[in-house]
Specification:
Distance between the termini: 51 Å
Number of domains: 1
Shape: globular
CATH topology: Rossmann fold
CATH superfamily: LmbE-like
Order of helices and strands: HHEEHEEEHEHEHEEHHE
Radius of gyration: 19 Å
Helix content: 40-55%
Number of strands: 10
Structural class: alpha/beta
Largest sheet: 8 strands, mixed
Strand content: 15-25%
Bound molecules: zinc ion
CATH class: Alpha Beta
Number of helices: 8
């Protein structure tokens, strides 16, 4: 301690570390609140049904995305007996993040390979809680996803699993504050889904939601799955995330008259329909 106090540089570094931790906390809250919420009175919202789905493919960027954005709907699908396959595009190494065009080094989690292995373990554990049949890790470098490099792999997945429902980020009408990896996944999935002719896509983290799925019966399962990602949602961070996401689920639920819900932009696709994502 004495050694630390005698070195002004170390003091500055400790202070910087503290402030960056606080900044990340605030940024985290901001992201959660801005993503996937239904703004009152702006759009016509219907009740989204998951009954009759034969096979679902959920495609996200990072380990924990599925639990944060659509965990309740995934649990609802598996409870209905629908086989769900989860595809994680990036390795979750968190060397840095990209927001807009800016590249920000991650001051907390840049532990490379060790973190990747830990997050994959957490994802497998969480998937078991949600009843997900299979998790596929594509292991692209975290923070560097490019939709063009994902399309052919995702097309192949869609041809292999032949899902009648795909769930992913909104790559066309994203929420106003969106991570670039999320956008890349959304764009790639929509492009591949249109080529293959997947009939129905549910996009979360959207600024134009048109359906809300009732997730009330599975909420406790959802929190259990979310906090299985211990490296991300442990202690205060975990409690904060649950509180924010519960508030969001409550606001979405009121749109269709249920306690809790998840909002999506539902797209019905006819084979080969045109799609030109923004560059
Ligand atoms: Zn993510």
């Amino acid at each position: 301690m004495k050694l630390i106090l005698q070195h002004p540089t170390l003091n500055v570094l400790i202070l910087l570390g503290f402030f960056s931790f606080m900044l990340w906390g605030l940024l985290f809250i901001r992201l959660m609140v801005s993503n996937g919420g239904v703004r009152p009175g702006r759009f016509l919202i219907r009740r989204g049904s998951l009954k009759g789905v034969q096979r679902a493919l959920v495609v996200v960027a990072h380990p924990d995305d599925a639990e944060v954005y659509c965990g309740g709907s995934v649990a609802t699908l598996t409870r209905l007996g629908v086989p769900v396959t989860l595809v994680i595009c990036a390795d979750g190494g968190k060397i840095y993040y990209q927001f807009g065009r800016r590249l920000i080094p991650n001051p907390l989690n840049g532990k490379g390979g060790r973190l990747v292995r830990l997050r994959e373990e957490e994802q497998r554990r969480s998937a078991r809680i949600l009843g997900i049949k299979e998790v596929i890790f594509l292991r692209h470098p975290d923070g560097l996803l490019d939709w063009r490099n994902l399309v052919s792999q995702l097309r192949e997945m869609m041809q292999r699993f032949a899902p009648d429902l795909v769930v992913t980020f909104d790559g066309e009408e994203p929420s106003h504050l969106e991570i670039r990896d999320h956008l890349a996944v959304g764009r790639a999935v929509l492009s591949a889904a249109r080529e293959v002719g997947i009939p129905r896509v549910l996009c979360f983290s959207t600024r134009r939601p048109n359906v809300v799925v009732d997730t009330t019966p599975v909420m406790s399962l959802r929190w259990k799955a979310l906090t299985a990602h211990r490296s991300q949602f442990h202690g205060v961070r975990g409690r904060l995330a649950v509180r924010i996401l519960r508030g969001l689920a409550r606001r979405n639920g009121t749109k269709i008259g249920v306690p809790y819900g998840e909002a999506f932009r539902e797209i019905w696709i006819t084979r080969g329909s045109s799609f030109s994502p923004p560059q």
